[in-house]
Amino acid sequence: MKKKTKLKVYSLDEVLDKQIGKKGTKARNRFDRKVQLEILRDQIKMLRKKRNLTQEQLGKRIGVQKAQISKLENSPNSARFDTILNVFQALDAEIIFDIKVKN
Questions:
Q1: What does the alpha-carbon distance between residue 48 and residue 59 come to, in Å, rounded to a whole number?
Q2: Which of 16, 30, 62, 73 is the Cys-Cys partner for 86 at CB 3.0 to 4.6 Å?
Q3: Residues 37-81: tens digit of each pLDDT
């Protein structure tokens, strides 16, 4: 009779700590920022489609070209903050900030 091998279960934080680096390291900060930007990008695209808007229509709502909306949905890291706020306002979405101040 074979002995069952018990698998160790790891949390996401444990895996990230080992593969990327612990929180607060440069590598982990870069990774976390990249993930946050990807979430932002995906939310914009998902909401735009949910509202049945083309990139061009969304751009017209906030006074920018279709290319700028496309760029925002593909790489929001170079977008102006006010543009992002305007996009979410045009999509009837509320942004809630959670700011944590380090000591």
A1: 11
A2: 62
A3: 889 899 999 999 999 999 999 999 999 999 999 999 988 777 888
Q: Which fold has domain 12-90?
A: 434 Repressor (Amino-terminal Domain) (1.10.260)
Fill in the DSSP letter of residue 54.
-
Exposed/middle/buried for residue 51 (C-beta within 10 Å: 0-12, 13-18, 19+): middle
Contact yes or no for 41/72 (Cβ under 8 A):
yes
CA 47 – CA 44 distance, rounded (Å):
5
Task: Determine phi and psi for 93, rounding to 5 degrees.
Answer: -125, 145
What is the structure's pLDDT at 1? 65
Token digits of residue 50: 């949910």
CB proximity list for 75: less than 8 A, separation 6 or greater: 37, 41
